[in-house]
Amino acid sequence: MEPEITVLRLGHRPGRDERITTHVGLTARALGADRVIFAGDAASRADTVQDITDRFGGPFDVETTESPLGVVRNWDGKIAHLTMYGLPIQEAETEIRAALDTETPLLVVVGAEKVPFAVYERADWNVAVTNQPHSEIASLAVFLDRLFEGTELTKEFENAERIVVPKETGKLVKEPEN
Prior knowledge:
Layout: E1 5-10, H1 18-30, E2 35-39, H2 43-56, E3 61-65, H3 68-74, E4 78-88, H4 89-99, E5 106-111, H5 117-122, E6 125-128, H6 136-148, E7 163-164, E8 173-174
Parallel strand pairs: 1-2, 1-5, 2-3, 4-5, 4-6
Antiparallel strand pairs: 7-8
Helix pairs in contact: 1-2, 1-6, 4-6
């Protein structure tokens, strides 16, 4: 059994971050996290991610909070903050993996706007997927892939209304066989 992984999207700039926030949630779901928590301004994005979960399966929980910093302050487990200012993931991943067990939940914090210094201080690990500016979606995807060592790529989703059938060419989406 894997540890519980929660992704916190810290901040959301309405009008600017709609697709980014949605894709943080979809990436978290597709690559092995158990739930995502969005800041209150991202409530419509939570509905979109929940709709995808309903159609393509779960389990995956989608929540919103009016106090994302409160989630960080009160987290009962380990925290990995994804930031270009952190230690390179290749230096931190083994320690992170070793520190987790089925009883220790992990909160993965992904920023939007300027991240308060309190997050850097509260995090058990400040982790960089390169020390160059790039997408928080890419950082989350690389982090989860490194954390799960590729096993998340074969995760099976339950209670799906639709299943994508892998094909070399073309597209095939079908209803599951019961």
